[in-house]
Specification:
Blueprint (H helix, E strand, L loop, with lengths): L3 H25 L5 H10 L2 H18 L14 H4 L24 H37 L1 H15 L3 H10 L6 H12 L1 H14 L3 H8 L4 H37 L11 H8 L8 H28 L5
Helix pairs in contact: 2-13, 3-5, 3-13, 5-6, 5-8, 5-9, 5-11, 5-13, 6-9, 7-8, 9-11, 10-11, 11-12, 11-13, 12-13
Length: 316
């Protein structure tokens, strides 16, 4: 017959060791923050991994297009390469995507066109996030007169059709450089970020840690940038990430309409616009720049969805 006293003593000792280990972990272990949990979830999300790899690749292409092609995207040969169809005789060479109606390499133009399209998307996203985020913080934190003023200003800009307003602004400029296009899109695109930041700040400013910091004599700047901003930034990042693809599409649409980047500037939207005349007999002129545009926008939308799932507790 087994010794019940000895067995019970052994079980009590095991439970005591487990409780000691848990207590030690609670004391020495660092609690995970929202960003730590989000990063852990993102690394396990195939959607994030695929989109991140695509975006990193596209950024490398836009920064160093010379690593992927040695062909001048602006030089053409009408005699030998007029609307020449693509073939795989030389993989990743100038003729892999074929040639356009001016005898220029479509592959080279797709590679070099990534720089301006992605630059506009990233630049507009940064501008609207910084400007709209600051306005949203001021509106949500101070309230009163400032909240009413910024909210009414946001309503006015929100009522302007985005593309139509950008077309009107760009018509006022004779030189459509990258910076002019970025400025026109950012001038109209900050409203959504402002509204999201305002709502997040209103929710966060009543938290206990903010009230405690104010009671301890913390200044307005410290409360805003040390306590409120880090905890109100998650929904803004989600909206900004998803909107980035929208800005790339907007730039391409404006270029397609002839109101985007200047004619001498290489962009996917401009090449798509020039390819419409040849789409029936030579669809390759349109397929490759349009395909790269679709892949880029899809990658940023996938990234935004993955970030939203990681930062929204309701979706876990």
């Amino acid at each position: 017959m087994p010794d019940l006293t000895k067995t019970k003593s052994t079980d009590d000792e095991a439970v005591s060791q487990d409780m000691t280990a848990i207590s030690a972990g609670a004391v020495t272990g660092k609690p995970r923050s929202l960003w730590g949990d989000a990063w852990r979830d993102l690394r396990r999300n195939p959607l994030f991994v695929i989109s991140a790899v695509l975006i990193v690749f596209l950024v490398i292409v836009s920064i160093a297009p010379g690593l992927f092609t040695g062909t001048d995207p602006g030089s053409g040969d009408l005699t030998n390469h007029f609307l020449q169809a693509p073939h795989l005789d030389h993989f990743f060479q100038a003729d892999w995507f074929g040639y356009d109606k001016q005898g220029r390499s479509i592959y080279a133009r797709v590679v070099y066109g990534a720089r301006n399209s992605i630059l506009v998307g990233l630049g507009v996203t940064i501008l609207v996030t910084v400007f709209g985020g600051l306005l949203g913080m001021l509106s949500g934190y101070f309230g009163g007169f400032w909240d009413s003023l910024i909210s009414r200003l946001t309503d006015v800009f929100f009522g302007i059709p985005f593309l139509l307003g950008a077309m009107v602004i760009l018509n006022a400029f004779s030189d459509h450089t990258v910076w002019v296009v970025m400025g026109s899109l950012a001038f109209l695109g900050w409203t959504q970020i402002t509204r999201v930041m305002r709502g997040a700040v209103i929710t966060t400013k009543h938290a206990d840690y903010v009230v405690a910091a104010r009671a301890l004599g913390a200044g307005t700047r410290r409360i805003l940038f040390r306590h409120i901003l880090p905890n109100a930034l998650a929904p803004v990042i989600v909206v900004a990430t998803i909107s980035l693809g929208t800005y790339i599409v907007a730039e391409s649409t404006l270029s397609f309409l002839g109101l985007g980047l200047a004619d001498g500037t290489i962009s996917w939207g401009g090449d798509i616009s020039r390819a419409t005349d040849s789409i029936r007999n030579n669809p390759h002129v349109l397929i490759f720049p349009a395909g790269m545009l679709s892949i880029t926008v899809l990658a940023f939308i996938m990234l935004g969805d993955a970030v939203r799932e990681a930062l929204d507790p309701k979706l876990r």
